[in-house]
Amino acid sequence: MRSRFDEQLQLLNTELIQMGALCETAIASAAKALLESDLKLAAHAVDVDREIDEKEREIETLCLKLLLQQQPVARDLRLISSALKMITDMERIGDQASDIAEIVTMAHINASDPPLHIGQMAEATIHMVTKSIDAFVKRDTDLAQSVIAYDDVVDDFFDRVKSELISLIGTHPERGEYAVDLLMIAKYFERIGDHATNIAEWVEFAMTGRHKGEEEA
To answer: Is 108 helix (H, G, I), strand (E, B) or coil?
Structure first.
């Protein structure tokens, strides 16, 4: 019985890794679509979001089977419950990558237009998502902590992008709608960083039984 349970836990691990890889692909495609005005990549990000949605349903079903058909011990129960939380954040990451891609498509943003720091913000956000998934794969709480701390870097880039866009509106008021589109994109990147932080916090909970949100309550 335990061997079968361990096999299913390994399958859960594999499925989560695959879902994380899809999230990385969606964000990278959306960011590159923005920076290179590549509408095919924008469409690809939207397609990958659909794959992420399907993967979420598959993992959710697997988690429920593990909870209902087996009798997980405390550590396993933490892992399964954390997985259910993580896939919600991953699904939202896919949604927001898709939202960025759709804005790029509808706004026809020229590759030479985006403010300097939005590209760096995109790279920082991808870094957070990649490392949060790595933390889960490696069961590395130190890496999870580094992801949580790195959210400040993404937030700083968001503030810089806002300042750049405010300056743009001040000097070129006719580009106000364009600036709002870019601000929305920056906000989606900032939210993706928040979701990566959540994933890292659930990794820490799975390993230690402690969750940052509970500690702050």
So the answer is: coil
